[in-house]
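Quick one: examine the sequence and fold tokens given here and explain what the tokens say about the fold. Here goes:
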Amino acid sequence: TDSMYNNFVNEFKWGGLPDSSLYLGYVTRRHCGMYRGHFSKLADALIANNQNEKAQKALNTCMNVFPNQQVAFDARVTPLVTAYYDAGAPKQGRAHAGELRQVLTDNLEYLTDLSRQHQREARRKIRNGFYGLNRLRRSASGAGQDTFAQEIGQDIQRLQNQSNLRRGPQQRRR
């Protein structure tokens, strides 16, 4: 954990990733998503060792190096938000949770507005979006942010009602 922390937070330079004028191709964005996952695991290990300040610093580095504007948020960012809450940084967790909620709901609003055929083709993306929102709701609730959790729950209900995938089997066959 110490070596990974030192490398990720102090040693690695990360190129110019936060620079929005820098173009990141598909493969680079995928790798950035994997590094976000590594930061999440690092933060979880630090929290388990009662090193919350280091966990917060690692999470801040991750969010600064891989901002939403360069590497779009998706459901896989939820563990980072949860780690902020677990590390005792509810304000930062809430800020990133709000940004993630907006991304997920915007994506789901678009996807659930598609025709039934296109929704079937995008089923995995739709499920991942709902999974991310549900996980985000549970994280907010676990951090004592009940009002925010209820708002996310309302988003989920509204989007499920909007989705053609929620219709009965007879309607889906048409």
Observations:
- The CA atoms of residues 13 and 60 lie 15 Å apart.
- Residues 168-174 have pLDDT under 50 and may be disordered.
